[in-house]
Specification:
Two copies of one chain form a homodimer.
Chain A lengths: L6 H12 L3 H8 L4 H9 L3 H10 L2 H10 L2 H9 L3 H8 L4 H10 L2 H10 L3 H11 L6 H4 L6 E3 L4 H12 L7 E5 L5 E6 H6 L6 H4 L8 E2 L4 H10 L4 E5 L5 E6 H19 L12 H27 L2 H6 L7 H25 L7 H30 L2 H31 L10 H23 L2
Parallel strand pairs in A: 1-2, 4-5
Antiparallel strand pairs in A: 2-3, 5-6
Helix pairs in contact in A: 3-5, 7-9, 8-10, 15-16, 17-22, 19-21, 19-22, 20-21, 21-22
Chain lengths: 450, 450
């Protein structure tokens, strides 16, 4: 049975909180999965969230804590002493504990760490705090299971039993040599079926051992786990010593965040923001693109003002200005979106640029032909056959140019190691606007013989 | 050591193929991970791809096959007899085998299945072909490990050994009752540490058992696995009988595809296309949005033609037409992107619509104020203080309206169960273009007293 959060459920819960109906709350909340409890608490006001949270036992508190929205978690933790926070962190995996600590106000961090009674755990957390949050080191956890090459299977099982207490999900056992260097891996399955005296060195696999380095970028880690279909990947330091592991659930979050960032960038938002962020933060994140858009508009005004005489003679030329700019923008964004996506996937990285531009040009020609035939009739109806020809001819030209620029610019950006996702969104639109206006008005002035 | 595909490596390989230097090929290719071999073959021409592929042993052929790009796989399979294809499928997991079969030409499907010698495998594949490819049934595989409630641990280990031969990655053991109904699960770890005579019924967990139904949508499956941090999820039929499992690697693909689709939709591409698709297919996928954009442009022309007299008197009014339409479009897309993302995540689903619109309006006012002050100076410089006031006032108004519509439209679409991602891209841009033009020219005509 999966839990479905509804408005009705929230109403009932809020009522139960007001009436202090602990029994109802225990029956309806305490059997839920921690992720569901967190999703309920996310929807409550501060005070109710606090009330429910404090009813949970300590271990579940920790599990719920890590599932909460960042701002709700921040509010909750403010109501705890540093000692209480430390106790909750002890129930978390090292990577989650480090993430929570990294969110705390700077002056509290040291105090919280000093209250962690398990020295090894405290050390792990301090170590993890050193890594950049967008690196493999920032993603990894210190909980993993390792076996030494010269162990027999029965010793391995005994050691595992000891280690496994701290490791919630065991996927793979990493095999190290006497210097703690990663040499291979072992599936739990093969251990389960091996005879007790077999040596690990006769059982482990080293072919196709995939690992990442602590300073690898988190996007790179995501790409590797995706490519090789891994559920966990060991992390080694520069000397190839095993220092941690990254599990797929954390990487799924990286993939989602990456997709969100691309989507926002394509929509003209320059920083990662969420709907719940402050008005200032949201405004600031949008400003750069709006400024680029406005600069484009000013350049456009400059182009049109160069044709002021023409427009005052044939005002009908102004009618199709928005059509030309809009279509140039749309075609440019479409072309660049395909290129950006194919670059992000690493597809066809060795295909020639010329071939891609040729293909996009052909698409531009096909669609341009269809639309310019339609628009001829409409331009004709608006004013005269001349206007029809002007609009039709320039629409076709603009679409062709937009397709070429939309393909070329992201490819060039990528060549110079600039994120090609910058190319979609207002940047390409703006360029095509200005170019489109120039083409349109030039053709207009020429054909009208002004 | 991770393999890095380079242009140099491809050149060397192509040379080796021409020289028939099997030794070099074996040394440099055969030790690679199957995913890397596939990425090499993806970059080769048909004939070379075929040559390399046929050098691999049968098991690796199958593993490489499933990692290849769809069109490369299609070309390769054309060179095999139905019997040979069947042999390769036998080395694949049932879900992968079903995926490959689903890509074959219809007239070959039956023949291939008839050549599969393992009857059980053939049955599994035929069963999987019945499910919609975007459902849990279409994602699941028939390879999983199950244990019965009344087994003792030692019987379970023996049975597992038998079952595990077919199951490449074991994450969780599913526990069923005598009617094959899913009742809970068991970690491999707990089995490893349990004493041989313990009953499964004393060992298994049923709390927080998450499963999906065969007809659940694949996006829903992805959301569930993400929310509950699962690496695999059991699939049950309508009677709660265990019929398959879905592993996280397949779901990662769903998440990526979903993100690609959203990105393309925001960029005005209506069908999932890839850079490698045919020119016709790409052209067709882009046409709907271009038609909407053109319709918007025609409506814009209609609006401007209503002000023809004003423009012929003050042609400078035409200068800022592109600026007004571009800014309305940009603001609208930004606002809608945030709403669409927050809807997709299911965040804040119970917040009021009015509150969201108020917030977006405030962001619009902040950015509108800053930009309209700048543009006043520029309009003034272009022609006169009056033009400065006209552009400044209308820019502010347009940005405010665009923010409101950008928020409102995706929320409304979502309310009526239409994908709100439709709202970003040309749709909102077009609406704001037309509205913006009307506001701008009306203010212009009024302030110029035309």
């Amino acid at each position: 049975m999966r839990f479905e959060l509804t408005r009705d459920f929230l109403n009932e819960l809020e009522e139960a909180i007001v009436k202090n109906d602990i029994k109802w709350i225990e029956e309806s909340i305490f059997n839920l999965h921690v992720a569901d409890i967190a999703s309920v608490i996310d929807e409550l006001d501060n005070q109710s969230a606090n009330f429910i949270y404090k009813l949970l036992d300590e271990e579940r508190q920790a599990d719920v804590l890590i599932e909460l929205d960042e701002d709700i978690r921040e509010d909750l933790l403010k109501t705890f002493s540093t000692k209480e926070i430390a106790r909750q962190l002890e129930n978390l995996d090292s990577d989650d504990a480090a993430d929570v600590i990294a969110e705390l106000p700077k002056d509290k961090v040291e105090e919280v760490i000093s209250h962690i009674t398990d020295d090894e755990a405290a050390e792990d957390i301090v170590d993890l705090l050193n890594y950049d949050e967008d690196s493999a080191g920032g993603l990894m956890q210190k909980e993993f299971i390792k076996a030494k090459l010269d162990w027999p299977v029965n010793r391995c099982v005994v050691e595992l039993r000891r280690q496994a207490e701290n490791v919630e999900k065991v996927f793979t056992i990493y095999v190290v040599d006497n210097d703690d260097r990663l040499v291979g891996f072992l599936s739990l399955k093969s251990l389960l079926f091996a005879s007790p005296n077999t040596k690990i060195s006769d059982l482990f696999q080293d072919r196709n051992m995939i690992s990442v380095k602590t300073n690898d970028d988190s996007e790179e880690v995501a790409k590797i786990m995706e490519k090789y279909d891994l559920v966990s990947v060991p992390v080694v330091d520069l000397q190839n010593k095993l220092v941690g592991r990254i599990t797929i659930d954390d990487v799924v979050d990286v993939i989602k965040e990456e997709a969100d960032k691309d989507f926002q960038m394509a929509s003209g938002i320059s920083e990662m923001v969420e709907a719940s962020d402050s008005i200032w933060r949201i405004s600031r994140a949008r400003m750069p693109w709006l400024l680029i858009g406005m600069l484009g508009g000013i350049l456009g005004a400059q182009v049109i003002s160069g044709f002021e005489g023409g427009i005052s003679e044939v005002p009908a030329l102004a009618f199709f200005i928005p059509l030309i700019t809009a279509m140039g923008g749309n075609v440019g964004v479409q072309s660049s979106a395909i290129v950006v996506q194919s670059l992000a996937k690493g597809n066809d990285q060795f295909g020639s640029i010329l071939k891609k531009i040729l293909k996009e040009s052909l698409v531009g020609i096909v669609n341009g032909l269809v639309l310019s035939i339609i628009i001829y009739g409409i331009g004709h109806a608006f004013e005269s056959p001349v206007l029809g020809i002007v609009v039709s001819l320039s629409l076709f030209t603009v679409m062709l140019f937009a397709a070429i620029f939309g393909t070329l610019i992201p490819l060039l950006l990528d060549k110079y190691n600039i994120d090609p996702a910058l190319a979609t969104g207002p940047f390409i639109t703006t360029l095509n606007d200005v170019l489109g206006l120039f083409i349109y008005l030039t053709i207009g002035v020429l054909l009208y013989g002004i």
